[in-house]
Hints:
By secondary structure, the chain is α/β, with parallel strands linked by helices. It has helices spanning 32-35, 53-66, 94-102, 115-127, 140-150, and strands at residues 2-7, 46-49, 71-72, 133-138, 168-174, 177-184. It has a single domain, classed as Phosphoglycerate mutase-like (Rossmann fold, 3-Layer(aba) Sandwich), CATH 3.40.50.1240.
Amino acid sequence: MALFLIRxxxxxxxxxxxxxxxxxxPIAESEWPNRIELGxxxxxxxxxSSPSRRCSVVARWxxxxxxxxxRFDPSWRELDFGAWEGRRWSNIPREESDHWLADYWNRxxxxxxSYRVLSMxxxxxxxxxxxxxxxxxxxxxxxKAVIAHCTKQPRERLPDVLVxxxxxxxxxxxxxxxxxxSWSP
Length: 185
């Protein structure tokens, strides 16, 4: 099985704004060829997507190209930043963000979720995927959770990598294990 984890294209949000579950607009589809290499994907057997608009527009584009209706699964949504959603990071009280950053695995922003909760829901969805060649259109946090799982990183720590908008990460099953095979920023 080959799984292509696709981060949504860049979005139309001011730099420095906290967004996770917030609905934000992706850049125009006419800009995608410069930012996301969807044409490099092989034939797909299934398309799964976060229901967020910035992901669903890509899933629908893939659907037109590959002939499969996308399945929208909320398990692939980004981290819920709760009360911080839509706020500038610089306006979030430092004691709140420092408290969260000290143990983001177990702590959550006010009214949001922890990375432990995000990882549990994403890995549950990951395990439910069908066999074959599957594309999942999602976000930075869920992709990092899958990378951590596949590379056997400690559960309490997501990889210190930024998965840029438009990146495609391929993971493949080799026997009983998963391996990160390629990465296209």
